[in-house]
Amino acid sequence: MVIRMRHTRAHTRNRRSHHALKPASLSACANCSAKNMPHMVCGNCGYYKGRKVIEVGKALKKEKKEKKKKEKKAKGKK
Q: Which of 2, 18, 34, 66 could be bridged to 44 by S-S, CB 3.0 to 4.6 A?
């Protein structure tokens, strides 16, 4: 099948003007002030609308890493 009428560049570009991607809108968590997507559980603390929804291992891992760093610094100073 053959295209009967070719669209001009302007017509094609006008149609594609709505195809641009918009940046993700981020909101601050009310509990820990971390950035997250709106209407989603915070991946940092596990809270949603002021309630603890899930137990997050990420925060626990971060605390353990910080604790290990402090221990290493304390050993290095002795």
A: 34
Q: What is the pLDDT of residues 7-39, one digit of tens each?
A: 899 999 999 999 999 998 999 999 999 999 999
60 in a structural domain: yes
Helix H segments across the chain? 9-16, 57-77
Grouping H, G, I as helix, E, B as strand and the rest as coil, residue 51 is strand
**Six-digit token string for 45:** 């603390």
14, 7 in Cβ contact below 8 A?
A: no
Amino acid identity of 35? K
Residue 6 located in a structural domain? no
Contact by Cβ (8 Å): 48, 41: yes
Tell me if the pTM is above 0.85. no
Q: Is 61 left (phi over 0), alpha (psi -120 to 50) or beta?
A: alpha
Tally: H helices and E strands in the chain: 2, 4
